Amino acid sequence: MDNRQKLIINGGRRIEGEITVQGAKNSVLPLLSACVLAHGECVLHNCPQLTDVDAACRILSCLGCRCVRDGGTICVDSSAVSGYEIPDDLMREMRSSIMFLGSVLGRTGRCRLSFPGGCELGARPIDLHISAMRQMGAVITEEHGYILCSTEGRLHGARIMLSFPSVGATENIMLAAATADGMTEIHNAAGEPEIRDLAEFLNKCGAEISGAGSSVIRIEGVERLHPAEHSVIPDRIAAGTYLCCAAATGGEVILSRCRTEDMTAFLNVLESMGCRAYSYGDGKLYFSGKRRLTAPPMIRTMPYPGFPTDIQAPIMAVTTVAQGTSVFVETIFDNRYRHVSELVRLGASIKAEGRVAVTEGVQSLTGAKLCAKELRGGAALVVAALAAEGTSEIVGVNYIDRGYENIEKTLRQAGADIKRV
Ligand code: UD1
Is 6-22+234-420's fold the same as 25-231's? Predict the structure, then answer.
């Protein structure tokens, strides 16, 4: 990965035009993991072209799957799964590599992996994943930074009470339980749309999962899964980020291939700021940010259907040019304000302390040299740089590429003056 690349943005132009929303990063990763369980060739459509997806395909190859990509379609043949180890470099590259724990354990009865990377949002423990696998009968030991998991025969069903509705832990339990012996119940399960997408795909493969999307998910384990074909849901976070680009620049966009029903919390906030949005036709959303924006008084990130933590940084960039004061409370991650110091370089007025940040809208921002330090924070810098007068340079583009498919091309087509050098 070339981390010397930069995005050069000449701001002050409205984002206007039609943007097709990519497939969801947070869906495709667990779906690729689910393919391990399917004993044959699965076909996934609408897969976004992202470095995290490439990393997941490399993990699949290490496990003995054949993984072939053709445009947005990825075929994964898991007939010959032989491996059970996820190499350290791939674990470090992407936190979501932990998503392979449940499927590899379910398929091979063992799994060896190191602690996942992606610690840039503060401590991101995996205790809920580990404890759930133990409750399902896995024996887990830690040795020299490696986690070794194994089971005698199949995992067994369990009644698992999550102390927090962790998205990743809910998905790992669903994967492990799909072919476990007996019924698994997840209480206080995460309800994100990506969880429903995973359940839908697993059920197409022969799993028996009910309740996905609610706080109690039941999984009746089956002996074996078979392959299936599936299309990844649209990325609500990428969609929301492009709406933030339009809002911050006083623009107007039509999003196509999006699911507005998954975006209610942040559409409500954007509408309360004076933006207008309505959905029509098949997956289209009209959005206008042409009126002067008023700052939303309070944004508190919450598990779905609350305001998504992944949109906190992009919307903060919008509030920096809105009229008034906004208070942000980040309840999901403990270090998710790393974009604040960079936004301040553009002239934004923001104070952050612990999990609280306060923005005071200013008349205008001015271009500056910026550094993306993580994915969504990086996207927030793009939003702000588009709104700023003058030129901005953003380094750390490799973080942005983890979640946005060709961001500069998408935005250029919508009128932005942005290039990658
Ligand atoms: C997923 C998303 C990420 C999003 C997050 C919250 C993917 C690939 N990533 O991440 O974009 O920001 O949901 O919506 O889907 N926790 C523990 N112990 C655990 C697991 C989690 O304490 O074993 C804590 C985390 O530290 C964090 C909180 O739970 O504070 C939420 O994490 P979780 O929902 O698990 O997020 P991810 O699945 O990592």
Answer: yes
